[in-house]
């Protein structure tokens, strides 16, 4: 007799593992299928910024979702650390989004006025105040936006904690298992065929990051999810140089970790699946970082790496049911916000499967559904 799981999750990154954790908490029988190793792609490459307000200021739905997710972190981190013993390294020293000149300063001041409506602690900082708070930063700044509640953490540890937490609650994980096709029953998906055999589930969730678009073509769906490679590097200063995360629209970011490392990021190359690190990318990141923080000249080199992030045509993740096949759910396209949105995505998917979303949440969730601008491939489901 074939075993039928409650939920099969295609993808063992932070999104898939967050979903698995939430479903396993409900006592569901969960199977995670990962073609490589758990948390080995974008989840392991992220700098771990929780930039709900630093990077999101145009789409209100995305901002609302990001703020809801940011608010979940203190409780979910405590829960995961207690359950798994994994230190997630949450740092609540805020983020400073800096301006290099008067033009950038005016743009940021408008953002301050906008974001204060959502978080009254957001405020403008003059150059002198920034230098007082962060004395090692360049004196060439024109000011910045202080976002006290945009924290940061150790992204690979969070992803691993979701995975270990899910397994502690009974989830099964199969690594090195590639999905070859879906198993269909008329207009329903009832399982997957993989390199290690067939598996059956009441619900199948496609959460394979930048590879989700390719996977969904097997279910007659063409989603505009494409890869964006990002390179980062890390150094170890002789001592702490900054307390807050420093972010610049024109010059990357600096993220100081609890263990003394400083992560510097990130480049951006669209439609690039090659995970190799380029000399030009490292040089650009190093030059930007040195301009912001001159004392990095004496820091010890640690390493450089790249991750493949899943972006979408309109910049919003796809979180919702397949428009044609019952039993197939999609959660992908989080781009640079996968770490930030991991708690709320797990909740959204569980709410959708269980039918437990509050009315106000349902309204927000609709903004991320699959139907927006799509058509079915066989009958013209195209963007």
UniProtKB/TrEMBL annotation:
It catalyses: glycine + O2 + H2O = glyoxylate + H2O2 + NH4(+). It holds the Pfam family DAO. It comes from the Bacteria. One of its GO terms (cellular component) is cytoplasm. Residues 6-351 form the FAD dependent oxidoreductase domain. Its EC number is 1.4.3.19. One of its GO terms (molecular function) is glycine oxidase activity. Pathway: Cofactor biosynthesis; thiamine diphosphate biosynthesis. Keywords: Oxidoreductase, Thiamine biosynthesis. The keyword Ligase does not apply. GO terms for biological process: thiamine biosynthetic process; thiamine diphosphate biosynthetic process. It is an enzyme of class 1 (oxidoreductase). The keyword Transmembrane helix does not apply. This is glycine oxidase. The lineage of its organism: Bacteria, Bacillati, Bacillota, Bacilli, Bacillales.
